[in-house]
Amino acid sequence: EAEAHIEEAIILGLDHHYPEAVEHLRQALAREPDHPTAYQQLAACLAFMGQHQQVIEACQQGLRIDPFNPTLHQTLAVAAAEMGDFTNAVAHLRLALALKPNWLEARSVLALALSSLGRDEEAAAQYEQVIREKPDDARLHYVYAAFEAMRGHARTAIDHYQQALTLKPDMIEALNNLAWTLAANSEADIRNGAEAVRLAERACELSQQREPVLLGTLAAAYAEAGRFADAVRTAEKARDLATAAGQKDVAQKNAQLLESYRAGKPCHEAAPASR
Length: 275
Prior knowledge:
The chain is mainly α and 275 residues long. The protein has helices at residues 2-14, 18-31, 38-48, 52-65, 70-82, 86-99, 104-116, 120-133, 138-150, 154-167, 172-184, 193-206, 212-224, 228-244, 248-262. α3 (38-48) runs antiparallel to α4, α10 (154-167) packs antiparallel against α11 (172-184) and α11 (172-184) runs antiparallel to α12. It starts with a helix and ends in a 13-residue tail after the last helix.
């Protein structure tokens, strides 16, 4: 009977009926508490439901039966990270990778967890290893670029934003963040107003001029290129859209920058990881 419940749960899970799948898996475990795969299936369904504490509990029960299951260690780690417990996440990700060394997904999550703990050099090493193994993943280049930008390594960030855009030219996040870096970085030899305008205009075009954050980046790019009238007009639009959308921080930031643009001054500051 346990196997029948598990098979039904798998079918329900494939159809995204996760609560029903969880019920069948719990019935399976009531009949066979030490079933080798039921806890793994249960944790996966609970993860899709966003039940992170229950995911951890299911994984712990599964690891009691199968302590060398890398999937259970990784699933538990992701749930722990979602709850802000990055120390526990790192511990279980290291166990998962000890059992399955070439698991790039687990290594990517490990890099994120390490960076969340402020262990930047260890995180960078993990990102670099994943990129060596998977150089054609645009999202991975973007995430690593954002990480490097966050810790002030603008040139490395620029390189990986560019690689992300080579692989996926219309990735809005990469267009925006690279444009911001080229427009507003504190180092003059990094800034390139004309290129920042090109990138930011493309991001705004792809978003139909509706995203305040992207418009704010475009305004900064115009200012760096010396087009202050365009910068003022665009920052006003970004401020107004952000206000209407309830994005108070974005609205305030653009309102502050408006004063600089009206005075003929561009925005020069360290580039953030993500705007």
